[in-house]
Design goal:
Number of helices: 17
Number of strands: 35
Strand content: 15-25%
Largest sheet: 6 strands, mixed
Mean pLDDT: 87
Helix content: 25-40%
Radius of gyration: 35 Å
Structural class: alpha+beta
Length: 815
């Protein structure tokens, strides 16, 4: 059949994938060659080079583990150096190459099912996906032969499917999307047939694959209790067995959603670290499994609650929760949502296919790109420009058309709905144009056929003879999931991050910002004259792309502070185009920022940052023992993931980095919570030190100043004013040192210490002369000269010599 719109939607999932189509006015899931609605996202390459995708590959994985089959590659999309080696075939594949094989399989099976070629499809991505992951998804689509592949956020797709199958009135609902690798909570609003995202929260490394891993850990611990031995988590030699256990755990996890207890049977095909065949039966109860996943479920609920709180909405204002993804069938999850959030859950839509259905509905409103140069194109056909709504919630729609070129008087046009239930009759074409209202069948993708007839009644060929209008919700522009920033440098090469587009900005979006150069740009010099780094978020590791201006492009010398106008535009699929214009040189550089990749995770840095953060948490923990216990638990999770990464777990480095970021945020929150009490103790300490020295050796002025500051201290402590406590503590510190440094004995002691340091480290004649002058001043009691010598000797203190000095660095001690 000839299609006017994309019509096909693909849910490319971490664990399972699906494809749906808008056909004959309906949305339908296209089954694979196994006659199943979903296809496991598993890819196998055999020793002969044959590529197997789906159920057979997954079953092979269960018995043979990695090295021949890989699952869950979606989590690795966007990683430039990640490779998956297939030992039997002797080849390596990137995450996007493996994703393309899954897309090829879906595409091929669907083509067999419907009997036509699929060259365009809407592909869904998690709302929390990074730009690099989105770009890698589109590269995978192109490798699969999908030349037009607009991206759609999964919660929008789920919302569209829900709205398509249920007649929605104005109101709010939540898409709760928990898959194999990611979690998204999205609050959507329906108003006058329009679907809009109100707010979103989520986590890129939270999903049921982590549950498989934990359940596998429980199973292995039970086996260890029976005398079996397993390699340490950081030992790559144990990766084969661990993955076999995870595959087994996935099957038992599904069974535990239906029964209260499972018996995990080992038939000897799996061996322990000593080579001993495992032949046992291990019982796991649902309660034991739920203990393993309870924290993750709590995290998803907390993210959902936080999102609702941000909006200011009451729970009673939200009509329903739409579950998306197989893990949402977990009994504990559904019970917890019902108890904690108390919003009814929609159960009439299959959570495994709802995203693909919504993607197909959206695709029915996306026009196919013009395939210019097609051999089948009629070069004599009259061109036509059509104007009509791609999606509407009304049962009528206005169509306007303008034909290109001259038409004879008496030419008419006719519109027929493809289901044969409605026709317009013949409509006169006046001055090459027509306008008419068509009838829309509710709850369908309405395909219309357009015919043009001359005055004699003969049919005239036209360039576009079909169009489609979907009856359903229209989707608002998707929001940007992370801010887009520029890494800027000043003249001293100090870095600052300037946000150009904020998180939540509706796409497509365009933003301009004027920067100034920090050094002179010279034509003809070697290398780059100007380099503009774009970031996703506010972490300089999150590199999006670089716009460079080479020196040979600069036609004239450009002074410091030359304006550079930077412009970025982001489309709905989150593709970025950036440009820079230098008015003084009348030079424009424009490029699509491609080859965006996620930063590599340095495990040594993760471990070092974790240790530093844990030390800080323990410093802050007095009186906050429960917080420290939770932080130590979180730190243990980070370290376990570090060890798992060393042992060959491909996802573990990302999990460690993500968990470390959450751990660091928790430490910062603890710092903020304890800042008041810490400042109060610091202020009291500064007051006691100042009081002691003023009472011992202070003059009248210092005693008056102390009395004033003691009153200020009492007021600051009573009010809990953090800023005031900081100011008073600084003033008390200054008073202390003013009194101390007014004492001749202080400078005598300081000179003696510095003289010893210089004498042991410097043989300079100038240093010797200064030392002699200082000793004379010491004998004569000349404190002024002694102070000057003390400062002049600083230049002769050897870097390798430790100098014990009490002079505070933050006070102007030369006054």
């Amino acid at each position: 059949m000839t299609r006017a719109t994309v019509d096909f939607g693909i849910d490319l999932g971490t664990t399972n994938s699906a494809i749906a189509a808008a056909n004959a006015g309906r949305i339908e899931i296209l089954k694979n060659n196994d006659n199943q609605d979903i296809t496991p996202s598993a890819v196998q390459i055999t020793s002969t080079g044959a590529i197997i995708v789906g159920r057979k590959a997954y079953e092979h994985h269960r018995s043979h583990s990695e090295g021949d089959v890989y699952l869950g590659v979606k989590r690795q999309l966007g990683k430039e150096h990640q490779r998956f080696p297939f030992a039997a075939a002797g080849v390596e594949k990137s995450p996007e190459e493996l994703s393309s094989e899954i897309l090829k399989s879906l595409k091929s099976d669907a083509e067999s099912w419907i009997g036509e070629s699929i060259d365009a499809a809407v592909i869904t991505v998690p709302a929390a996906f990074e730009l690099a992951q989105c770009e890698a998804t589109q590269r995978a689509a192109k490798l699969a032969g999908i030349t037009q592949a607009p991206l759609l956020q999964e919660p929008i797709a789920a919302g569209l499917a829900y709205g398509y199958e249920q007649e929605l009135e104005t109101g709010y609902f939540i898409v709760y999307d928990l898959g194999g690798g990611t979690f998204d909570a999205t609050l959507l609003q329906v108003r006058d047939g329009h679907l809009a995202i109100v707010d979103h929260d989520g986590h890129n490394f939270l999903g049921s694959r982590d549950w498989d891993r934990r359940l596998a850990g429980l199973i292995s611990s039970r086996l260890e209790a029976l005398g079996y031995e397993f390699e340490q988590l950081n030992d790559p030699k144990g990766s084969h067995t661990r993955r076999r256990l995870e595959a087994l755990a996935e099957e038992e996890k599904i069974r535990l959603s239906r029964v209260d207890q499972v018996d995990v049977l080992f038939d000897g095909s799996i061996k322990d670290a000593t080579g001993r065949q495992i032949e046992e039966s291990i019982s796991i109860t649902r309660a034991e499994y739920e203990q393993l996943i309870a924290d993750d479920i709590e995290r998803t609920i907390a993210l959902t609650e936080k999102m609702i709180q941000r909006t200011g909405l009451e729970v009673a204002n939200i009509a329903t929760i739409i579950p998306v993804g197989g893990p949402t069938l977990t009994p504990l999850l559904r019970e917890s949502i019902a108890k904690r959030i108390a919003i009814p859950m929609e159960t009439r839509i299959d959570p495994m296919t709802v995203v693909a259905r919504g993607a197909a509905q959206f695709a029915a409103g996306v026009p196919l790109e013009d395939s210019s140069g097609s051999a089948a194109a009629d070069i004599d056909a009259i061109g036509i420009n059509l104007s009509y709504p791609r999606v509407t919630d009304d049962e009528e729609a206005t169509i306007g058309g303008r034909f290109e070129g001259e038409l004879d008087s008496g030419t008419v046009v006719e519109i027929r709905r493809a289901d044969g239930a409605w026709a317009s009759g013949r409509i006169p074409v006046e001055d090459g144009t027509f306008i008419f209202t068509v009838a829309i069948a509710p709850g369908q993708v309405n395909t219309f056929e357009l015919s043009l007839y001359g005055a004699s009644g003969s049919r005239i060929s036209i360039s576009t003879d079909r169009f489609a209008i979907t009856h359903g919700l229209t989707a608002a522009d998707p929001p940007l999931s992370r801010p887009i920033s520029v890494l800027a440098l000043d003249a001293s090469d100090s870095e600052s991050i300037i946000t150009m587009l904020d998180k939540g900005t509706a796409l497509p979006a365009v933003k301009e910002y004027t920067f100034k150069t920090v050094r002179e740009l010279l034509p003809g010099a070697a290398g780059e004259a100007l380099r503009i780094e774009f970031l996703e978020g506010t972490d300089k590791r999150a590199h999006v792309g670089t716009l460079t201006i080479d020196s040979d492009q600069v036609g004239r010398s450009l002074p410091v502070d030359t304006p550079v106008d930077v412009k970025i535009s982001v489309d709905k699929s989150r593709t970025i185009v950036a440009s820079a214009y230098i008015p003084l040189a009348d030079l424009t550089i424009e490029d699509v920022l491609q080859k965006k990749y996620r930063p590599e995770i340095d495990l040594e840095t993760v471990s070092a940052d974790l240790e530093q953060g844990l030390d800080r948490a323990r410093e802050l923990a007095e009186g906050h023992e429960s917080d420290l216990a939770q932080l130590e638990k979180d730190a243990s999770e980070v370290e376990q993931n570090v060890q798992a990464a060393l042992g060959g777990d491909r996802d573990a480095a990302d999990r460690a980095d993500s968990a470390l970021a959450e751990f660091a945020a928790s430490v910062k929150r603890l710092e903020a919570e304890t800042e008041g009490s810490r400042l109060a103790e610091h202020l009291k300490s500064e007051r006691d030190a100042a009081r002691e020295v003023v009472q011992d050796v202070g003059d009248v002025d210092s005693k008056v100043k102390l009395a004033e500051l003691e009153s200020e201290t009492d007021r600051a402590l009573t009010s809990g004013d953090i800023q005031r406590m900081k100011v008073v503590a600084t003033e008390l510190d200054e008073l202390y040192w003013d009194v101390v440094m007014a004492q001749p004995s202080f400078w005598v002691d300081e000179f003696i210490q510095r003289a010893e340091a210089v004498q042991s480290g410097s043989k300079s004649a100038a240093a010797s002369s200064l030392l002699q002058l200082g000793r004379q001043a010491l004998d004569q009691g000349d404190i002024g000269t002694l102070k000057r010598v003390y400062f002049d000797l600083e230049a002769f203190v050897d870097d390798g010599v430790t100098e014990s000095t009490n002079v505070p660095k933050h006070i102007d001690i030369r006054r």
